[in-house]
Amino acid sequence: MRYVVGYTANARGHDAVHLAVALARNHDVSLDLVLVIPEDSPFNAVYPPEAGYNDILNQQAQRWLDEGLDLVPEDVPARAHIRRGDSEAQTLIDAAVEFDAAALVIGATNSGLFKRFTIGSVASSLLHSSPVPVALAPHGYHRMEPITRLSCGFGTRPGADELLDVAVESARDRGLPLRLVSLLALDGGDSPQLLDAAWMHAADRIAAVDGSPAGSQLPEPEIVVAQGRTIEEAVDRLDWEDGEILLIGSSRLAQHRATFLGSTANRILRALPVPMIVVPRDYTRHSA
Amino acid sequence: MSTAPKTVQSKETSLSEKGLKAGSVGLIGAVVIGVSCIAPAYTLTAALGPTVSEVGVHLPAIFLVGFIPMLLVALGYRELNNAMPDAGTSFTWATRAFGPWIGWMGGWGLIAATIIVLSNLAAVAVDFFYLMLAQIFSNPALGELSKILPLNIATTLVFIALACWISYRGMETTKGVQYVLVAFQLLVLGWFAVSAFAHVANGTAFDATAISPDWFNPFAVDSFSSFAAGVSLSIFIYWGWDVTLTMNEETKNPEKTPGRAATITVLVIVIIYMTVALATLSFAGVGETGLGAGNPENQSSIFAVLAGPVMGPFAILMSLAILSSSAASLQSTFVSPARTMLAMGHYRAISPKFGKISPTYKSPSFATIAAAIAAAGFYVITRTVSENALWDTITALGMMICFYYGITALACVWFFRASAFSSVRAFFFKFLAPLLGGVILLVMFVKTAMDSMDPEYGSGSSVGGVGLVFVLGMGVILLGVVVMLLMYRLRPEFFRGKVL
User: Fold this and answer.
1) Which of A38, B93, B158, B452 could covalently link to B470 via disulfide, CB atoms 3.0 to 4.6 Å apart?
2) Which domains can be identified in chain A, with CATH numbers?
């Protein structure tokens, strides 16, 4: 399996590499560091004409990628690629499709003063159009040890069941404890009936998924209900392990087989202390 | 777990070496690029007045003659660009041909010319910005705001900062925008000419002047000084034309498109320049009072004065055309000095800081900001010293282009000296054309420099009894010499020929 890492030679790119390494260590994954350099539009002709800037830019990109590869420990196979494109997000998506990547790993920008995640324009485009899951590293993510727990946020809206399937399968393949975080209470206040409903629903899904394929058994998942007056507060109240990662689905607005970060997910993202993976709508894992 | 070798793989599909999409530009696209680099609405408003003040009614003749050295030098430039593609252009080529000292000054000349044009572009954009506000709100007082010195300087600095930021972020003008800007400029300039001729026919022109064949006779210009000044100004109006000649892989037909596009571009430009020049002279005459094209008050921006009387309520279109084209040029022109400085930093001819590339935007970071600071500084100094700063900067710019283009052309002759006589084509393109062009430009440069010592030269501003144009032109070159000597002390390896 391959992960495409959207690499830039700054803190954002380093965060992405760290997260990609952590994810790769749970599974037999090789990394493809992709550095996108812009393509000059001939309609923005440089005058007086010159033809050598791109040689200098290419040399610089090679050096940056060498630094990026140095961040990757010996036990994780990695390659680096220079790609050209007008749009960094689209170029990364093209690379992910070409490599048949299982995920795209990127870093959040570091300009936010108070929020853990401030999504840059590149990350934002990816979270709203990627055909493969997008893993987003929070600013300053340094951990490279394997992921220790998989959380999955779910509600009852269409697509929630597919997401749960992906979560259960991923946790089983990687031998990770699974925690299901019900966002149901956030959708409609926190009455006791809703809590029970969330519980019942999760248990049903796990039984359905876990029972079907043969093979290793998933350890009993933990189910928690996120509670709070606001989404941010609910996220803060939950306990998060350092090595945790949150899996979250795309909005109903997403195109078929594409990510689209919904408003709830967006607000979760802003308060979340751990990395998260946004799964495209109607996504099914193709490898086991 | 298997450990695969960690390697950098570079894969670029259907891209030229320049990082441009191969085969994406057709003939019309190439012409649009050529015209947009010239920015005719901007160059005419900036250069028409100063040229008239030098050569009077022989403006059309000078515009035609001025193209010849540009053509000759551009042919040599193309040869160098094909043989040694490099971000440093004139700097790198002159260094390879004549060694580090002249090469360094060639690079300095190129950077200085682009910095000066940046500050002039921003200033013209600001003038038309306030003029447009005045036209929108039908309140002439708003147009007068650009004459308040502190406000003018502050607005110009904001424009420069904005263009710098856009360039730093690597944002570019797209194909669609470029087509619209070019079509709009040509349309408005055509409209201006037709309206002016209509006024002449109706007897409502300011100073109706009958067109005479003598206007096209360059030998009728009264002195060689005027001739030299006129030619160095008209170099500026064709500056940008040769961009199509250097387009290769990005065109759909690299064999034919660049040459054809360059020919069509120059035809379009000459026609529009001739029409507008004749229309302006017919309508306003060359008198030094009122709307006359020779009036010193009108030199800095002729259309700011004439568009209203000629086009009536539609004058706002002229403001819009000049504002949009100079704003677009301002942003794209930033790329050039930044890349030359980046190359000079890369080759250790100046501080390696200039060679820094932004990891986020992949643009020359330090060099782009340095270009903005230099352009802002140049404008503030010129504006505070001179009452008619735009006029003087344009004249100084003409000198600077003659200087670095002359050096580049001679570098071509010297670099290719071994192969110059190997074929008729090589003799013409690598030897004769650049030699003639280079000599003409350097003669124009020396003549203009000497004449501009006169405190009455240009707008008549002077510093310590010496004409401001001389101070601006030679001052910038001397500053280059000082910086070069300083760099020789700090980083001698480049000057000992160890880098290039």
Assistant:
1) B452
2) 2-137 (3.40.50.620), 149-240 (3.40.50.620)
Cβ–Cβ contact B11 with A under 8 A = yes
Nearest partner of A154 among A198, A193, A220, judged by Cα: A198
What is the number of helices (H) and of strands (E) in chain B?
20, 3
Tens digit of each residue's pLDDT (9 = 90 or more) over A106-158? 998 755 555 555 677 888 888 888 999 999 998 889 999 999 999 998 776 66
CA–CA separation, A2 and A22 (whole Å)? 14
Q: Report the 10 Å Cβ neighbour count for B417.
A: 12
* pLDDT, tens digit (0-9, with 9 covering 90-100), for B250-266: 888 888 888 899 999 99
Q: Which of B81, B326, B357 to mutate to test the interface with A (most CBs of A within 10 A)?
A: B357
Q: Which two tokens stand for residue B221?
A: 């210009």
Residue B20, pLDDT > 70, answer no
Structure tokens at B467: 């004409």
Is A232 within 8 Å of A264 (Cβ atoms)? no
As a whole number of angstroms, the longest Cα–Cα distance in chain A is 71
Q: Please count the other Cβ atoms lying within 10 Å of the Cβ belonging to residue A263.
A: 10
B419-437: average pLDDT: 94
Strands (DSSP E) contained in A56-128 are: 78-84, 103-107
Compute, in degrees rounded to 10, the torsion defined by CA atoms B96, B102, B103, B109.
Answer: -150
What's the Cα-to-Cα distance from B132 to each of A81, B190, B410, rounded to whole Å? 49, 19, 44
Asked if the Cβ–Cβ distance from A56 to B243 is below 8 Å, we say no
B43: left (phi over 0), alpha (psi -120 to 50) or beta: alpha
Q: Touching check for B92 and chain A: CB below 8 Å?
A: yes
CB B55 within 8 A of CB B221: yes
Distance in angstroms (rounded) separating the CA atoms of residues B37 and B39: 5
Rounded CA-CA distance B226/B62 in Å is 10
Mean pLDDT of A259-274: 82
Q: Tokens 């408005």 — which residue? A: B188
Residue of B6, B340, B400 to mutate when probing chain A, most A C-beta within 10 A:
B6
- CA distance linking residue A265 with residue A267, whole number of Å: 5
pLDDT at B15 over 60: no
- Local structure of A88: helix, strand or coil: helix
Question: Per-residue pLDDT for B1 more than 50?
Answer: no
Query: Could you say which residues from 23 to 42 on chain B have a Cβ atom under 8 Å away from some Cβ of chain A?
Result: 24-25, 29, 32-33, 36-37
Average pLDDT of span B280-294: 90
- Dist CA A269 CA A193 (whole Å): 27
The interface residues of chain B toward chain A in range 170-189, judged by CB-CB distance below 8 A, are: 170, 172-175, 177-178
Name every residue whose Cβ is closer than 8 Å to that of residue A144 and which is 6 or more positions away in sequence.
A18, A21, A22, A25, A73
Pairwise CA distance, residues A16 & B49, whole Å: 57
CB contact under 8 A, A81 and B89: no
Mean local confidence (pLDDT), B224-252: 87
